[in-house]
Known about the structure:
By secondary structure, the chain is mostly helical. The chain has one domain (3-49, 57-194). The chain contains 7 helices and no strands. It has helices at residues 3-7, 10-33, 35-53, 58-80, 86-110, 112-148, 155-194. Helix 2 (10-33) crosses helix 6 (112-148). The radius of gyration is 18 Å and the shape is globular.
Amino acid sequence: MRVTEIIRQKAVIRNLILATAIFFASLAAGAFIGQNTVEGLLSELGAVLEPLASTGNLSLILLLIIFINNAIKALVLIFLGILLGLPPMLFIGLNAFILGGLGSALESVNGWRYAVASFVPHGVIEIPVILLATALSLTVGMESARWLVRKESRVKSQLSDGLKVYVRWILPGLAVAAIIEVFVTPLVIGLVTSG
Length: 195
């Protein structure tokens, strides 16, 4: 099956809508109640990244860290769909909650333009790609549930289809998003803060 045909399956589209709904509900919850949680995570992240700044190649190292982290998470996410789709729902919900809290924290300190500039340049690619990985994972989860109740199931073919989409769309999308996050987003933030 071609990659575009895989994405156009009714089950994948339904699960993409579900993943998007979970994402936006969790994003809103994080924006309203997650700010304090995220501030603690940010201070820990700063402590982890501080030693990397002394290498002088922070941009390239950060690019690799972001890309590899997102690529591994998306791949594992697709496979974890076997567990009835629960891990992908938790993954997208938790990440959106943290993103909402981070956006709220950035907005309260630096204003809404800064918060938007911090996410939109790379987020317009990264978020849909992660939502697609989540939808594929949920589709695998639905097939796993069918297998558990002894109905005809296509778990293996859904995993295979998910890997095809991962290689052709998700991985390249995450690479582009990481490049934008490291090299373009800081420029957009600079434009917002200087003007």
